[in-house]
Amino acid sequence: MVNNAGFATKAIHGGNIRDAQYGSLAMPIYQSSTFCFDSCEQGGNRFAGIEPGYIYTRAGNPTTGVLENKIAILEDAEAALACSSGMGAITSALWTICAAGKHIVADRTLYGCTFSFLVNHITRFGVELTLADLSNRQELESALRPDTAAVYFETPANPTLKIIDIEAVAQIVHDYNPKIKVVADNTFSTPYLTQPLKLGCDIVVHSATKYLNGHGDVIAGFVCGKTGDINDIRMSGLKEMTGCVIGPFESFLILRGLKTLDIRMDRHCSNASKMAEYLDGHPKVEKVYYPGLEHHAGHETAKKQMLKFGGMIAFEVKGGRKAGETLLNNLETCALAVSLGDVETLVEHPASMTHHSYTPEALAEACIPEGLVRVSVGLESIDDILLDFEKSFAKL
Ligand SMILES: *Cc1c(COP(=O)(O)O)cnc(C)c1O
Question: Which residues contact 266 (CB under 8 A, 6 or more apart)?
Answer without folding.
Answer: 308
